[in-house]
Design a protein that fits this description.
single chain; 5-stranded mixed beta sheet; alpha+beta
């Protein structure tokens, strides 16, 4: 096999230069073939030799190869980006004293390890039905929410690693049971909650590929498909194939084939109870999960609301528009805005002109925004200097004026890049 050195076309996004055998780039292989297996693993290990540690065995490398359909170039890019993320978030020390679980989680936990099943897979229970989503996103920054999820994932992987050291080969897979008992749509229907959910899903798939054995979503409400459809576009095909949704208790028979009923709470069909026989396992689960506002971060709690002192107010009269010009002096700056109306929706768009004398150009088309319930928050990277115009349109309303709360700011390019 002739080897031809090749540099990645997108190598500038990586911290080091990697060269691979051209005949193996983007190559689809039959991994069941032993020779192919040895060949691709050897090549993948070679191009990653500058970052791999002794504990990164073949099974670890296989996770990344499978996640990118055995494309070495894409797999290398994925794993290098993940290593950068792990360093930034402190994943390698998160199970040590270097990290402390947030106080809000210690008082209002929403996930619990159930140990290992008979197939040596980690089993974790999540309680999305009682979770105070808005309370969590109001109490923790996004990075802290990610650290919290990383802590749970690393905890389960550590359980698997300990088991692997005892009995040998263990497939590093986890089973998630998500109980939607007592779920209420009003607790979930919030833009900041949905955005946080999307970011956490993306982080999980990008940094823990091929670690999901199955996810059982149980006791789901009748309107669950509406919720699930929000997140489907952000779930890859492999993850989707492992998600099983149940409105009844049919899932229990499948789970109990491998999971000891003694570790499964009685309210989920197991035999685990409190010492006094209570099936709700109050010594394990805090069902009173409404987070006290004293845990809220002020900037999270007030953003975009009437209590946010940085918000300005105006009334957009019927049959009229309101425009806010914002000058951008540096290319690459980030224009950020948030707005809310008190009772009715309004139309919004974004325009640009080079200077006061120039003709106005449309950037974001004017469209209806239902911001009377949830503040509308967005941002735009300004590649050109000039005047950007935030445009609120109430010209379609013949009778109703709209009370508007709004805020806009320009973030310096350097600060935007760091963020």
């Amino acid at each position: 096999m002739t080897a031809i050195a090749r540099r990645w076309s997108d190598i500038e996004t990586l911290s080091s230069c990697s060269y691979i055998d051209l005949s193996m780039a983007h190559k689809k292989v039959d991994y069941n073939n032993e020779e192919n297996r040895k060949m691709i693993l050897k090549e993948f290990r070679r191009v990653l030799k500058d970052i791999l540690q002794p504990h990164h065995d073949d099974e670890f490398l296989l996770r990344w190869l499978r996640a990118r359909d055995f494309d070495i170039i894409k797999s290398e890019k994925m794993i290098r980006e993940s290593f950068k993320f792990r360093k930034k978030i402190g994943a390698d020390t998160i199970l040590t004293e270097a990290y402390q679980l947030p106080e809000v989680f210690q008082k209002y936990p929403v996930t619990y390890s159930l140990g290992l099943d008979s197939e040596n897979s980690a089993v974790r229970l999540f309680m999305p039905g009682i979770c105070d989503y808005k309370g969590y996103v109001s109490s923790l920054k996004m990075m802290d929410l990610m650290k919290l999820l990383v802590y749970f994932l690393e905890y389960d992987l550590n359980l698997l690693q300990q088991r692997k050291e005892k009995i040998g080969n263990v497939d590093t897979k986890s089973t998630f049971i998500l109980d939607f008992t007592e779920f209420e749509l009003k607790k979930f229907y919030d833009k900041s909650v949905i955005n946080a959910g999307i970011q956490l899903i993306t982080m999980y798939q990008d940094n823990y590929p091929e670690t999901l054995k199955a996810a059982y979503l149980v006791n789901v409400p009748s309107y669950f498909n509406w919720i699930f459809n929000i997140f489907k576009p952000f779930l890859n095909a492999v993850t989707l194939s492992k998600i099983k949704v149940y409105k009844t208790d049919e899932w229990q028979d499948e789970v109990k084939k491998t999971l000891d009923p003694a570790v499964l709470p009685a309210f989920l069909g197991g035999t685990k109870t409190d010492p006094d026989g209570n099936p709700k396992c109050l010594t394990m689960i805090n069902w009173d999960s409404k987070i006290d506002p004293s845990f809220y971060l002020k900037q999270n709690m007030l953003q975009g609301t009437e209590e946010d002192e940085s918000m300005k107010t105006t009334t957009v009269q019927q049959r009229s528009v309101f425009q806010l010009p914002v000058e951008v002096k540096k290319p690459g700056a980030l224009l950020k805005w948030v707005f809310k109306t008190k009772d009715y929706n309004i139309r919004f768009g974004l325009f640009y002109k080079k200077d006061e004398k120039s003709k106005q150009e449309e950037i974001l088309p004017v469209d209806n925004v239902d911001c009377q319930v949830i503040p509308e928050e967005n941002e735009f990277i300004c590649e050109k200097t000039g005047i950007y115009i935030l445009h609120w349109d109430n010209s379609y309303s013949w009778m109703t004026a709209k009370q508007l709360l709004y805020k806009a700011e320009v973030e310096d390019p350097n600060e935007a890049n760091n963020n």
